Amino acid sequence: MxxxxxxxxVLPSPPAIEFASSEGKQLFSEALQSGTMEGFFKLISYFxxxxxxxxxxxxxxxxxxNALAIDPRRKWKGPWRWFDESMLDCCEPLEKxxxxxxxxxxxxxxxxxxxxxxxxxxxxxSTINDFRKYVMACTSSEDxxxxxxxxxxxxxxxxxxxxxxxxxxxxGSDMALILDVARFKYPxxxxxxxxxxxxxxxxxxATGHQRGFMLISRLQKTPSLLYTLSCKHESWISTAKYLMDxxxxxxxxDDVTDVQKVLSVVFTSLPTNFAEFIxxxxxxxxxxxxGSSLSEEEKGRLAxxxxxLKQVRETELFKHVAASSCCRNIPSLIDKDTLPEIAASVCCxxxxxxxxxxxxxxxxxxxxxxxxxxxxxxxxxxxxxxxTVVTGRSEQGVDMLVPFSQTNPWSCHVSGPCNTIRMHPVTxxxxxxxxxxxxxxxxxGITDEKLLQEIHNLMSTDNLPPLLQEEVLNLRRQxxxxxxxxxNKVDDDLGVPSLSQ
Length: 501
Hints:
Protein name: glutathione gamma-glutamylcysteinyltransferase
Enzyme class: transferase
Radius of gyration: 25 Å
GO molecular function: glutathione gamma-glutamylcysteinyltransferase activity; metal ion binding
Strand content: 15-25%
Mean pLDDT: 80
Keywords: Acyltransferase, Cadmium, Metal-binding, Transferase
Organism: Macleaya cordata
Number of strands: 17
Helix content: 25-40%
Structural class: alpha+beta
Strand order of the largest sheet: 1-6-5-4-3-9-2
């Protein structure tokens, strides 16, 4: 029987020039000498082929995020944190992307949610001269990359809408190098920048908007150092709606007379799967890989996380939350607030990740856990929770690196070998950070003016220490983008949302 299928396409040339051709090599050499191939080497190091016919947007984003060395803050496979198309699911379900593709606005949203700085422009919001300047600037740097959304027709290529990064620019011929992520179809190729603009200056029928381009770079500070919002479970939709819409309405009740009433209103009607929405980030490592010492990177990362936790505990809002009975009685969070329970759970998760058996039917059981402080060369003590995880007949030693706070204990604590009371992240501080991250307009429904002013003072980010302020504003930014995705408005407004509303 004959085997049906397509093996690549012949690249229409002109207008394109294949990268690996003699002419293409000459363009590369000249552009390299001119300094407009600087971004190429990072991109080519992480160049990937889209894994599904409709995953061009996801492949472009994961390629650029990896080239920028942005930490996903979540595991990919085994012990590795790495951007992959399968992890880019916060703005659109992967199955839907697989079936229908993804829009320009949602690709920009994905990059935002992943922790990148994004500037997105449709062709009716920019000019070809501005586009050329952006391309020249990004191709002359390793710190910024351009992703284009274009229609293939002006290049005489088969297919319709497509996403790919720009790998370089040749000023003499005014040509851009497209690193086509559909490598099974076309190789990387040079195209006239004017023709690329024409290809972008087309309407995406799915949204009715012009296509365009986006500039992706690193944020000055790493976002979500300790806390992050999770879209892994579909319950995020109901939780985001509750926090961004419903709470404001519920607070209009005349019964809201003091801070504890406000907290009660917010947390009494929480969606069932609320605990899946906001997490504190725990990290694991194999004991045999790591030995007894921590790397400078691990120590530095833990030190920053501990400072964030300390700053949360020092807010006045935290004191109200810790004293609130409604917050202490949130069963979905409080049932794993003790360090042994968290350690057992996270060490099991870590063992699954480290052995590459995530979701395996082979059960993981945490046999033992112990808390220890590591201190060397006068460094600040670092808390490590060690566990022995059993699966079948094998055992895996796992360490969990735990951020701790040494402020006054408002919730559960642990005394370690350091003879100091030190507290790990628990429900009260997670709730505190989430409350701070809610948009200021959330509280405007409170009718009592004196109470409204008190709440605004408690929830204000203006006077927070810079580290905690950045953490909170990043979570607020995530909330805004999730709300836009939920309302299908990311394609109507590409700008970064105002965090003061």
